[in-house]
Every structure is written in structure tokens, then in C-alpha cells.
Amino acid sequence: MRKLSLKELNRLSVEEYKTTTKTPITLVLDNVRSALNVGAAFRTADAFALERIFLCGITATPPHREILKTAIGATESVEWVYFKDSITAFQQLKNENYSTIAIEQAEDSISLQDFDIQKDLSYALILGNEVKGVSQAIMDVVDYCIEVPQFGTKHSLNVSVCAGVVLWDFVKQMRF
Fold first, then answer.
1. Strands 50-56, 99-103: parallel, antiparallel or unpaired by DSSP?
2. Least buried of 16, 86, 90, 152, by fewest C-beta within 10 Å?
3. Over the stretch 125-139, which tens digit does the pLDDT of each residue have?
4. Which structural domains are found in the chain, ordered by start?
5. Any idea of the CA torsion for 45, 150, 123, 62, to the nearest 10 degrees?
């Protein structure tokens, strides 16, 4: 088996990316502390052609050095908006008819594999702070809460890893 060269990957230019069909998902980072996690989220959002990222509260914004380190250019392709607080971002998403989903361990959460993804809806997936998770103010108003099943001792995924797991599940069901 031979690895493909970069040229063989047929990657889009930033200009082509901006005009390509996007997956109708907005990724919301609710007070994510690590700029490295933010950069990884940008890179994942680019890989899956998400509509945009909302960066809220203490979440770092480009051109932060650590974001750029892990995003490797994705801050140029992925649309993003900063909000001083997550509730304002949430209100905009509700006004735009997004189905809002916290990714969190909570009462009455739905296991990821059991969530019924609708191809004709737009989703906002909300990931929280690395220590405190999604804020209770957001948990009080979301439409759904999805939990990623875990079987080890930690019951805690890194926020960027969690984003990749959940986004892949949504993207494969929405685009294939």
C-alpha cells in the first residue's frame, strides 16, 4: 500500500472551500480554556466542511499562537464568530432554527449511537470547558443532550477528541 502525496489528495484551496457545500452544523465552544483545543476544533471543522464555529466566553480567538499551531491554516477557511457569552450565541442559533445539542454527561442525555440525526435539519453542537463542561445556563435551554459512551475509568474525553467523535457520527449520517 502506498501513501498518497499531498498533490494526490486534491485538497481545496481556501477560496474553493469557502464556496463548497457546507455540512449544516455550527460548532459552539462554550468557554473552552485551551487554545490548542480551539485550533484542533478549527481543523476538524475544516475537515468536515462545517458551516462555522462560534467561540464563546473565555474561548481564545484567532490569531492566537496556539490556535494557529494546531489549526494549521483552518482559521483562514472556517468561518467563525466570537460571542462574549454563550447565551447570546445560543439565542442567535435558535433564531436561525438550529436544533441545539449539548455534548455532555447529564441526566436524560441520549447516547450518541441512539440519537436520530435528521438530514434536513441544521444542528448546533455545543462543547464545554475542559473542567466544568457545558455551562448550566446552556444545559437549561438546549433541545437535546448527547453523551458519548465511555467504558474506562476516566469517563472524560479531551474536548477536541470528543468533537471529532461526535462530528464524524453526524457527518457520516448527514452526507453519506
1. unpaired
2. 152
3. 999 999 999 999 999
4. 20-175 (3.40.1280.10)
5. -30
